[in-house]
Amino acid sequence: MTFWNNPINFIGYWLNSILTGWHLPAAIARVLLYVIGIIVLILFAMTLDIGLVWVERKVVARFQDRLGPNRIGPFGLIQPIADIIKMVIKEDITPDGADKIIYNIAPVLAATSVIVLWAILPLASTIYGVDLNVGLLFIVAAGALGTLAIIMAGWSSNNKYALLGAFRMVSNMISYEIPMVIILLIPTILANTMSVRGITQAQSGMWFAILSPLALLIFLISAIAELGRSPFDLNEAESEIVAGFHIEYTGMKFGWFYAGELLHAFTFGGFIAILFFGGYGGFFGLEKLAALAWLNIPFVQALVFIAKAMFGYWVIMWIKYSVPRIRIDHMLAFNWKFLVPLSLVVLVNTAILNKILIVLPNWLYVLGMFASNIVIGYVTVEILRSYGRNQRKAEKLPDSHAQTQEQTV
Amino acid sequence: MTAEQIIFLLFAALVLVSALMVVIVRNLLHAALWLVVSLFGVAVLYAILQANFLAVVQVVVYIGAIAILFIFAVMLTRREAMEKGRQTRNNWWIPAMLGLLILTGLVVLIFNFPNVEQTAAALPVGLDTLQALGIALVSPDAYVLPFEVASVLMLAALVGAVYVATVDKK
Amino acid sequence: MSIPLAWYLVLAAALFCIGLYGVLSRKNAIAILLCIELMLNAVNINLVAFWRYQNPAQMAGQAFAVIVFAVAAAEVAVGLALIISVYRRRKTVVADEINLMKW
Question: Cα(A165)–Cα(A239) distance, rounded to whole angstroms?
Fold first, then answer.
């Protein structure tokens, strides 16, 4: 075990030997090392978050055909630091009738529910927090904590717009958890494990995005709805409901919500990369060649992972800044009447075909799975088209009916 | 006092203290949030018992669905006048006595159980609890029948709740 | 594993009794449902502790606990729907005032 192969364990053993050299009992040294590891992970996530503020503002500017922050520091790189200083020195207001304890805990819980996801996110084959064998369910559990934080924020603000926004956001989030959980079963079936590392390792042959593109699409849509970003952001749209559940939050408390939302978006970009694009590996078996053996170094894998996560995050931002927002009842109808049946069909299809086609050679297996997804997609589009056609016909008939009635009367 | 025992005692204290707050607190929303804390403590206890699937499902189902349902129900049935004054009935000491009696009886019963001071053996090597649970729930000579009956129950509850809570359109 | 089984059982018994006290002494119907959840959780802790300490290879304890999860969720859904429906008609959720069937 060298530093290049296994950096975290190497540093852990070195620190452990130092601590036991200072005559600390082994159990306390281990607990101390765990605490240090947790703090380092949180620091890494939050530092990445600061960078994400800059990325977000530059990317939205370019989508809107302008430059973005470019005055503070070269290319505006120091802009996030200026933002943080601004938020820290702002006045910290607690509204009059607010429930003080819940009001103050809500932003902390919202940010915690995101940072906790970094415990299972593997940056490389040997750089990860913990390898839970129920990693995918852990993602859903962390989403549940975030939902709780939002409803606490909306209720304790003592403000009807905050409450409306919180109700909408929570009903959105718990509705879109269902297609997300169903789709999370598809990498489980294809990789035979729920552990996030296991799923990444199972993609060393073929990415799951190619085996199941519909699953990728539905997961992307559910992820955007879970994040509460456009086009599903009626919950906090400025023109509709004045920032929704975080109206009454100022200063650093709002900073926690904002930073938590950006980090959440990046973390979901990371999960899209892990579940569908091979995570830190997934080079189609190329890394076994001697010439490309450097692809196995953990730091290179971490860079590959962050690049893929940035790509996922960029797609989420692209959708946010290009598409208009959807009304709340249309959002929920879209989920319950379209996404849930579609994700169930995709799940059943993947499960059955996985068992049938696994005996065939690999390229036939990949082709079969990909083709079945295309077929399901085509059938869905045809059903939607005929449904739309029927709706348009139905809307025409009453009008002509009313016209003939007016003429006779 | 091993580290594991200390962690167990900490989280057991958390569970019991927040359960007490649930039954004592006046503001119903605070009671629901104390329930969330208690349920989270129970999830940690499941993790200590190495039932990690149950720990995560506890957070997802209880905290992510049931507690949110409770909070919504509390918000939808709120009357200001209801939260002033006593939240417990007049003869609250009867349930308290009953609770203490039953607790004493149960503790006596527990310590008469054979082998109750044993510590757990290690899990058998190669036992994947998640896979074993999955197989047990769908295997015909294990628990597939209760599993299917539970899903029919949930379907009935879904239909029933939607029907009962529908507002009549006059 | 260095925790005796007795600790888990006593914890579950205490949680059950706290829930029992809450069910019998609270006035608000939703608070009663909250305390029922405490009792269900106590039962679950018992089941999982016995699974772990007696025979972990036999999944009966965990399967039973999963079914209890399902039943608790179903019960809370229907119970809260009923309470909200009663609130719409009677404008109250205090359990004592929902006494139409008393003679």
Answer: 13
Spell out the residues 6+ positions from residue A214 whose beta carbon is closer than 8 angstroms to its own.
A342, A346, A373, A376, A377
Residue of B10, B33, B35, B133 best to disrupt the A interface, most CBs of A under 10 A: B33
Distance CA B30, CA A271 (A): 34
Judging by beta carbons within 10 Å of its beta carbon (0-12, 13-18, 19+), is residue A31 exposed, middle or buried? Answer: middle
The C-alpha of B31 sits at a distance from chain C's nearest C-alpha, in angstroms, of: 8
Domain spans, chain A: 1-89, 93-392
Q: Residue A241: pLDDT above 70?
A: no
CA pair distance C36, C98, nearest whole angstrom:
19
Range of the domain at C62: 5-91
Residues near B79 by beta carbon (within 8 Å), at least 6 away in sequence: C91, C92
B67 shares its domain with B139: no
B52: contact with A, CB 8 A cutoff: yes
Residue B56 within any structural domain of the chain: yes
What is this structure's pTM? 0.90
> Is the bond preceding residue A231 a cis peptide, omega within 30 degrees?
yes
Q: Output the six-digit token pair for C70.
A: 């399902």
Interatomic CA distance for residues C90 and C93, integer angstroms: 8
Total structural domains in chain B? 2
How many CA atoms lie within 13 Å of A408's alpha carbon, on the beta-carbon side?
5
Query: A92 vs A84, A104, A405, C30, CA distance in Å?
Result: 14, 11, 64, 35
Q: What is the CATH number of the domain that holds C24?
A: 1.10.287.3510
* Average pLDDT value for chain B: 88
Determine the pLDDT at residue A406.
52
Chains that touch B (3 or more CB pairs under 8 A): A, C
Nearest to A202 by CA among A291, A277, A127, A268: A277
Quick check: is B114 in a domain? no
Closest B-chain CA to C28: B87
Phi, psi of C26 (to 5 degrees): -90, 150
Per-residue confidence band for A185, with pLDDT thresholds at 50, 70 and 90: very high
What is the phi/psi pair of residue C88, to 5°? -65, -35
**Main-chain dihedrals φ then ψ at residue A33, nearest 5 degrees:** -65, -40
Average pLDDT of B88-97? 85
Query: If you ran DSSP here, which 8-state letter would residue B93 be given?
Result: H
Q: Look at chain C and report how many structural domains it folds into.
A: 1
Contact across the interface for A148 and B36, Cβ inside 8 Å: yes
Query: Between chains, do B32 and C67 touch, taking CB under 8 Å as contact?
Result: no
- Per the CB < 8 A criterion, the answer to whether B65 and A140 are in contact is no
Owning domain of residue B3? 1-83
In a domain, C11, yes or no: yes
Last-in-domain residue among B65, B83, B101: B83
Q: Is residue C51 part of a domain?
A: yes
Q: Which residue has the tokens 């006092």?
A: B1
For residues C73 and A189, give the distance between their C-alpha atoms in angstroms, rounded to a whole number.
26
B159-169 average pLDDT score: 83
Phi-psi region for residue B118, left (φ > 0), alpha (ψ -120 to 50) or beta?
Answer: beta
Is B33 a member of any domain?
Answer: yes
C-alpha separations of A406 from A277, A393, A395, A399 in Å: 61, 21, 18, 11
Q: Residue B37 sits in a domain of what CATH number?
A: 1.20.120.1200
